Amino acid sequence: MKLQQKITLSILSGLFVGFGVFLSINHEMMKKTTSFEIYEKLKSKSLGLTESIETWITTKQQIGDALAKIAPSIENRSPENVRKYLNLVNNAAKIDASMVYYKGMTLRHTDPNWTPSAHEEEKNPPYQMMIANNFQPAISPVFKSPINKVTDMFVIVTPFNGDSAATLVVELKDVAEKVHKLKFEGGYASLIGSNKKILFDANENWQGKTLSENVSELRWLEDEIYSKKSGLADFQLGGKEMVLVFDTVEANGWKVIVTVDKDVAFAHLNAQTKKLLLISLGFFILSILGIYILLKVQFKPLLSL
Predict the structure, then answer these.
(1) DSSP per position, 234-263
(2) Lowest mean pLDDT among 52-66, 135-149, 237-251, 290-304
(3) In Å, what is the CA distance from 227 to each residue of 196, 221, 269?
(4) CB burial class (10 A; 0-12, 13-18, 19+) of residue 260?
(5) Could you say which of 102, 163, 189, 250 has the lowest number of CB atoms within 10 Å?
(6) What is the pLDDT of residues 68-121, one digit of tens each?
(7) 204-207: which pairs have CB atoms within 8 A and are 24 or more residues apart?
């Protein structure tokens, strides 16, 4: 092999290796930075939604506590008189229904047509839940309205006088609005109940079922979400790479999920990588031309040996 060829081959090999290392290092650094920014963005959105829901529930609990404190002091406990207090509670809590059960008496309810006897009321879920919780304040799982069989709701039960209870009936419509509002390019929010049933999701067909019931291969992800208070996970869905961040509403164990399509999330990184590659290729070609000219002009006497 001629000296010119050896010099050219050595220089080109060095250039190839140098540019390869340069591109690899820069891409990894950009990928780490982008990944960190994406995860932090998802965590921020997840935490913000979690805190919003937590505050919403806490406010309802505080109003329920207030009703439980007022109820024992009401001297006239006729349904009509107690209903005046319940209507005030409904307005303050922005709910449609509340009730007070005095031990041994017919239930006092916002709806005058809802009047189960003491015996019937103590068999109903709110009272049974209070018993199961050793007569401590409790929040029920989400259930369908016993009246229209459609509306999703839960109850907040606050005992008083040992075995009586004040109960707020809370619909999920306000939470639905909070969840659906959290949309961004390639990403969306979901809410899963303490019983692992999906309450709200971008895909409405998934609602009312668990994650593993919708996609059996994602049972591991379901277990991961319910094994920790918060975290993040990468998974595949419909052939797409997804990244997910989750958090927990401490008041009742709901799980707030924020998911984003990796291709969309990393689109900026991919665009920057292409730019870097094109620029590097341009410098590489210019370097080859420069070396070629240098070898031909500056080292011509050496190369003719």
Answers:
(1) EEEETTEEEEEEEEEETTTTEEEEEEEEHH
(2) 290-304
(3) 12, 10, 32
(4) buried
(5) 250
(6) 999 999 999 999 999 999 999 999 999 999 999 999 999 999 999 989 999 999
(7) none
Strand partners, 234: 243
> DSSP state, 105?
S
- Residue pLDDT, tens place only, 280-298: 666 666 666 666 665 566 5
C-alpha 280/C-alpha 285 separation (Å) is 9
As beta bridge partners, residue 245 has: 232, 258
Alpha-carbon distance 219 to 211, whole Å?
7
Q: Is the pLDDT of residue 274 over 70?
A: no
| Among candidate residues 102, 90, 165, the one with its CA nearest the CA of residue 129 | 165
Tokens 């994650």 -> residue = 211
Are the C-beta atoms of 282 and 274 separated by less than 8 Å?
Answer: no
What are the tokens at 97? 């229904």
Q: Are strands 198-200 and 187-192 parallel, antiparallel or unpaired?
A: antiparallel
Output the six-digit token pair for 150. 């459609």
Q: Phi/psi zone of residue 213: left (φ > 0), alpha (ψ -120 to 50 degrees), beta?
A: alpha
- What is the pTM (predicted TM-score) of this model? 0.76
Residue 303 binned pLDDT confidence (cut-offs 50, 70, 90)? very low
Distance CA 285, CA 267 (A): 27
- Angle subtended by helix axes 173-181 and 3-70, to nearest 10: 160
Task: Say how far apart CA 169 and CA 156 lie, in whole Å.
Answer: 7
Find residue 259's DSSP bridge partners. 188, 244
Residue 256 has a pLDDT of 97
Query: How is residue 69 written in tokens?
Result: 């404190």
